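Sorry to interrupt, but I need a hand with the structure work. Go ahead and set the record down below:
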Amino acid sequence: MKKIVIYIICIIMLFFLIPIICTIRFNNTEETISDNYENKTILEKIVDNKDTEKYNYGKYKTIKLLHTDTGKVEKVNFDEYVCHVVSAEMPVSFEKEALKAQAVVARTYTLYKIKSKKHKNADICDDFGCCQAWISKKDRYKYWKSGQDKKWNKIKEAVYDTKGKIITYKGKVINAFFHSNSGGATERPFYVWGGEGYPYLQSVQTAGEDNYDEYSSEVTISKTNFVKKMKSKYKKFNINWKDKNCIKINSYTEGERVKSIKIGNKTLTGVEVRQIFSLKSARFSVQIGKNNIKFKVIGYGHGVGMSQTGSNTLAKSGKNYIDIIKHYYKGVKVENAN
């Protein structure tokens, strides 16, 4: 009789204990998954990697790069090429989100240039005046002198964190112009190259660019050399220095650059003056001295599209790379290449 009672008691105990044991076991497992930072990070990386694999460069997984100094064409991995462009175009000291924005802009600009088929035997060249700047890893390491691996890895992270991301407008790759410093406001391409055609490139404001060396510059030239430079462009140029209005700015663009300026018997655009006198920007004022002409210049570059120093300022204020891109390119999407 006692044995039967003991069996009954054991069965009752097991009936209550098994659910408790199972509950404790599974609760501990859930706690481990949710609280284990390393496992969570791995899981997030797997998800992120699946997401980045959605991109498709089509036949441009490798591109043909023309080295203009040698004339040789080299086949390079697309995103490795972008790493070299970003290292050539933007200081590695800039914020990570600014570097990521530059990576997406460079990738987009590359695809746009490839589609334009500017070169017969290559997809793109390493001349910034024609396509965009490019520098070898060896030369970049020489320039940095110290901490090279850490700096290069920072650039690679910016490129591969945005792998496959490009900028589109109404489903098409945009012409992603960029420049060094807008001087506080970007420019519409109409005032630089004429024509419209780029509704996503408007004049926008950016604060904080005056904190960079690229913000302001001066060019002083003797009146004799001033006349020589003007006559090299316009043979019938003449100017009366006694006339207080011999140089007069007539109008400004939306981006606060010189739109029209009268110099002697000629009327020029600010862009033309910038080219003739090698100014860093078409946003300038003119001072006429006794023997010299002084240009006071604001900004660096044509002013169209993304300002690099402006993007760094936005990144410092907490903006991410998509925020930065959408600030400078209106009505666009940042999406995977397709």
About this structure: The longest helix spans residues 2-35. The chain has two domains: 60-176+305-336, 211-298.
